[in-house]
Amino acid sequence: LSQHKQIERPLSRAALEVLAIIAYHQPITRAEIEEIRGISLSKGTMDILLELGWIKPRGRRRTPGRPLTWGTSPAFLDHFGLGDITDLPGMDDLKAAGLLRKGQILGALMDHAPQTAESDHDEHDDELDGELDGDFLEDGLLEAGYDGEQNA
Q: What is the pLDDT of residue 41?
């Protein structure tokens, strides 16, 4: 007889970074996530987010290799109390909260982990192939011009 206990652990810093990048830049490929982070992505990081149900495959790019793209799921919105992807904080909101000063973005995310993520319209939306099912989020994202860089 064995007893299985589920222990809640906070997300790692890498998982929080990846979740925020996916939310802001969806649909996005693994290679694009690695380019933004400047470091290779552990398979386990994506697996954790998939297991939580916060990210889902969005389709494939019409580029060589046909890489899989990722986006957030309705479970992501539910967990973070968002009605729609456009409810994510914009650039002005993040600046007002002091989250865009160098070195403070991840610290603030870790203090409230996991609570917020961001969004931006992806310029590759028209390169996606195939239909997305109803579980996927709308591609109409923030009006703010978040470019993925941490400008002070």
A: 92
DSSP E strand boundaries for 7-67: 28-29, 55-61
Q: What is the CATH number of the domain that holds 35?
A: 1.10.10.10
Domains identified in the chain, total number: 1
Average pLDDT rounded to a whole number, residues 85-107: 75
In a domain, 104, yes or no: yes
Which residues, 6 or more positions from 113, have their beta carbon under 8 angstroms from its beta carbon?
Answer: 10, 11, 16
- Name the residue range of residue 99's domain: 13-117
- Model pLDDT for residues 6-17, shown as the tens digit of each residue: 777 788 999 999
- Spatial CB neighbours of 143, under 8 Å, sequence gap ≥ 6: 86, 90
At 53, which helix (H) or strand (E)? none
Which runs of consecutive H residues, i.e. helices, occur in 26-145? 30-37, 43-52, 74-79, 91-96, 105-111
How do residues 27-52 score in pLDDT, each as one tens digit?
999 999 999 999 999 989 999 999 99
